[in-house]
Amino acid sequence: MSASQPKVGFVSLGCPKALVDSERILTQLRVEGYDIVPSYDDADVVVVNTCGFIDSAVAESLDAIGEALAENGKVIVTGCLGKRPEVIQQAHPDVLSISGPQDYASVMSAVHLALPPKHDPFIDLVPDYGLKLTPKHYAYLKISEGCNHRCSFCIIPSMRGDLVSRPVDEVLREAEKLARGGVKELLVVSQDTSAYGVDMKYAAREWRGREYATRMKGLCEGLSELGLWTRLHYVYPYPHVDDIIPLMAEGKLLPYLDIPFQHASPRILKLMKRPGAVDKTLERVQRWRAICPELTIRSTFIVGFPGETDEDFEQLLAFIDQAELDRVGAFAYSPVDGAAANALPDPVPEEVKQERLARFMALQAEISEEKLERKVGTVQRCLVDAIDGELAIARSMADAPEIDGLVQIQDGEAAGLKPGDFCDVRIMGSDEHDLFGLVGDDEDL
Question: In the chain, how long is the greatest CA-to-CA distance?
């Protein structure tokens, strides 16, 4: 790249869906000849893609904007917090531009204004799958924007709008390009993966000479043709999720579901404006496991929601004890500016929230430790993420990057493993989060 090329610094905050937005902006910047640089000093302008879901995310975003202004001076702001420009302008009135999530055109217009492009088509080459912020062996595949739910604790629809699905052929073509680029694992993300295609009335589209419906099952059938690990995130436990479990049992999809249950008390779920048939949910989970015993279920929960009583909390503990979820994240309820839940009566005192959170996580740690211990002595197919000294740091089919556990392969370096390699690992030990094992050849295993 020529030294005279305009240079852009980039800060990406927030969830995997925001990460995909960042990747699309970065790809367009490179297509137009901009050089992406890793330091404020080298950048002619800095783009900050913000998060604005909870108070701590707002604070982190404002801090990032402030740091970029202090270190560089020219800052363009986009992302979820951009839907609340007054918050940004009050804290940082000197930013060059503010735009909301998915507003790629506004970001590029602001960059063009601050830093006109100098494109040279002979040297500015971008792979056809675009630029990625993840390691090259896995990638997030965003299938839709927005959400039709109106959960009382969430302001995502006000930031990202109602559900807008991408046509299934468009998604499958992107996945195919990623596979050609060396991606081994696709992580399907959206605000509600189960609702994919409902806004398009599940319209059928053609890919590779075959028609696929723009709905979760059709998408999964198409992705299974690529021979990649395909992992589903943000899945609501609707009845039609039953249709994809056989694909997992047949090895066509990773046996993994990320389902944000959020709570288990019907009363609290009603206050959250979430589905509340907990008994049916447990039955569904048990039926899925009967069809696909290898199924891993991860989830997230909110503890201390306004009005949560001791009885409600005990119902939550009973649910995770019965459901035996494999991976669980939880956080104490925190008011989100603009959320309907702020108006609910009977807030839970902070010390009670923290005490309940500690009890919840202690119980889940016991469940997780016991479930992982059952894997000792088994052989797990793993994907290597990194080499750390003698160790290879990998993930099994049960582990999504950054949010789940790891498999530490003790002889990874000696076995010649490198990031992006698949390998079979004999599990020799475990703790409440991770597995430990050794590589073996067919005779050893």
Answer: 67
